[in-house]
Write a structure and sequence with these properties.
CATH architecture of the largest domain: 3-Layer(bba) Sandwich
CATH topology of the largest domain: FAD/NAD(P)-binding domain
CATH class of the largest domain: Alpha Beta
Radius of gyration: 21 Å
Distance between the termini: 72 Å
Low-confidence stretches: none
Mean pLDDT: 94
Largest sheet: 8 strands, mixed
Number of domains: 2
Strand content: 25-35%
Structural class: alpha/beta
Shape: globular
Helix content: 25-40%
CATH superfamily of the largest domain: FAD/NAD(P)-binding domain
């Protein structure tokens, strides 16, 4: 089998890998983007695009953000519904003063959104998109890396592992192992015909005693569809011996608040599972001649389970580090640490806070109290709305004084 030579090999063409490749589009470097699938392809996910997605697109270029705003295969959302274990409901409608950009967030199938990014790579003379190219093994030494795929061998100076939650690059080069305390399991289905949806396109979160720490979600999609699923910390899943697929179907058919809305609903695409490596632990996400981005680097928010925006931000940081490596001809582990510093400098404080709040959300007594008190106070609703982009406001949730104040309000 002939050996193909590139300057950079990006393993995985999802949002993190695609953003890294886009950052190298004008570099003149020879870049291979290899993916085991052929695009467009589906990816099992919650399909939620937080404000970090717009941040990452804008970081790359304002024109790319404008293209996304014109992208028709997404639904903008400006409202949230949170239901406590006891059944109390908190609804918050966000206004433009609470977020930057055109909306609080968006919902788009990965089939559509990932293809939107990959299409931006086509036509670039220095980027080769290698489809149906599954990585089987790889080796790295002082001279470079060799990637052994099902249909080719690739020699490269630098490897970007963007190959998702089951990353081979992370296992082989960063010695990554799954820790159930920092990993979630999830399932999702595409469902049509759900009753009582709202024109504000609410993203809905149900905190249920049966799936703590975790939640059930209902995210609206274009054309009357919804992404419906739930996730739970893997350590709790093992302890409770839950079958997530069966549990989701049980809740949709029997829960008193949820089942009536699904009485006439149809499952369009069956219940499918996926893993979520959480950012609640910090580890080395780079080394000599390699970097990890997105899920491969365990950059999923420990509280919300959102990881697309985080993956895209890390892809941007990785592209900048690639350019620095080639400019200085330095691919050492010490040089790569600048990438770790950039990623964790942007995300770690939030991950730490959200890891703590994950534990708060797993306590029914506290969640019942919070939802009940906040739902009855206009001032508290406004405070919660401000948390979307105000990290200092979110930090107050970790302070005992916040709960004492709420208790006596």
């Amino acid at each position: 089998m002939p050996v193909e030579s590139y300057d950079v090999a990006i393993v995985g063409a999802g949002p993190g890998g695609a953003m890294c490749a886009l950052g190298l589009k004008a570099s003149g470097l020879r870049v291979a983007v290899l993916d085991k699938a052929t695009f467009p392809r589906d990816k099992i996910c919650g399909d939620a695009l937080s404000g970090k997605v717009s941040e990452a697109l804008s970081m790359h270029s304002p024109d790319l953000l404008k293209d996304f705003e014109r992208f028709s295969e997404k639904l903008s959302t400006t409202a949230l519904r949170l239901v406590s274990p006891r059944g109390d409901c908190l609804e918050i409608a966000f206004t433009p003063r609470h977020y930057s950009g055109s909306a609080l967030g968006h919902i788009s199938t990965r089939l559509a959104f990932d293809n939107f990014l990959v299409e931006k790579l086509r036509g670039a003379p220095n980027i080769s998109l290698l489809k149906s190219c599954r990585l089987n093994s790889l080796s790295v030494d002082a001279t470079g890396a060799h990637l052994f795929c099902n249909n080719r061998i690739i020699k490269t100076k630098l490897v970007i592992g963007a190959d998702g939650a089951h990353s081979l690059v992370a296992k082989r080069l960063a010695n990554f192992t799954v820790d159930p305390r920092h990993y979630s399991a999830a399932v999702r289905a595409y469902i049509s015909g759900i009753r009582d949806t709202r024109p504000e396109n609410y993203v809905e979160f149900y905190i249920l005693k049966d799936i703590l720490p975790g939640y059930l979600w209902i995210f609206p999609l274009p054309n009357g569809m919804a992404n419906v699923g739930m996730g739970i910390l893997s350590s709790a899943l093992h302890k409770q011996r839950l079958n997530l697929r069966d549990k989701l179907l049980e809740i949709l058919s029997t829960h008193p608040l949820i089942a009536p809305r699904f009485k006439q609903a149809t499952i369009v695409d069956g219940v499918k599972g996926f893993g979520l490596p959480l950012g609640s632990r910090r580890f080395q996400i780079s080394g000599e001649r390699f970097m990890l981005v997105g899920d491969a680097a365990s950059l999923i928010d420990p509280l919300t389970g959102e990881g697309i925006g985080e993956a895209m931000l890390s892809g941007n940081f990785a592209a900048k580090q690639v350019l620095d490596c080639f400019e200085k001809n330095d691919f050492s582990a010490a040089a790569m640490r600048r990438y770790d510093d950039a990623v964790y400098g942007r995300l770690w404080n939030s991950f730490q806070l959200h890891s703590f709040l994950q534990k708060v959300a797993a306590t029914p007594l506290i969640m019942n109290f919070l939802v009940r008190k906040i739902s009855r106070s206009t001032a508290m609703k406004e405070f919660v709305a401000s948390m979307v982009e105000d990290f200092d406001a979110r930090k107050k949730l970790a302070s005992p004084s916040f709960y004492l104040k709420l208790l006596f309000e």
